[in-house]
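User: Please predict the structure of the protein below. I'd like the answer in structure-token form so I can feed it into my own downstream comparison script.

Assistant: Understood. Taking the following sequence of 144 residues as input:
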Amino acid sequence: AAEQREQYTRKSLACAEAEVNSTKFCAAAEAFAAEETCASTHAAAVLQGERCSDEQSKVSVAICEFGDKLQTACSGGSNLEEMKKKIQGENRTDSLSEPDRKQEWVAVQKLQCVLIALRDDQPLTDDAINACAAKSPYPNTFDF
């Protein structure tokens, strides 16, 4: 029985030592796995950071290109304002003169009224011609 007890004690100590060694081995394996996971996660984060940096560069370039196009469009707007002032200006002698177009419209309407009066054998008085021309006012189609 003493021999069996001694054998039991030796095996029990060997088993306890194996359990300690197994626990140490498992802890080491878990630490190694954690390091691997951490390293791969870090590598993925660095790669994603590079992608984000590339995308941010593309966005910055797109914003600058938009700004350039906007500046070009806005300079066209100031040209439009200059043209609008010219069109509305008095004492112009070119085809852009809005006051001249209005006068021409009235003259053409009066001429049309004269022709209609002649065709219909009606009197050619100033009042009749002006009343007829007033029925077709200048069509202001420009939204200044």
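That's the full token string. The helical segments are 2-88, 98-119, 126-134.
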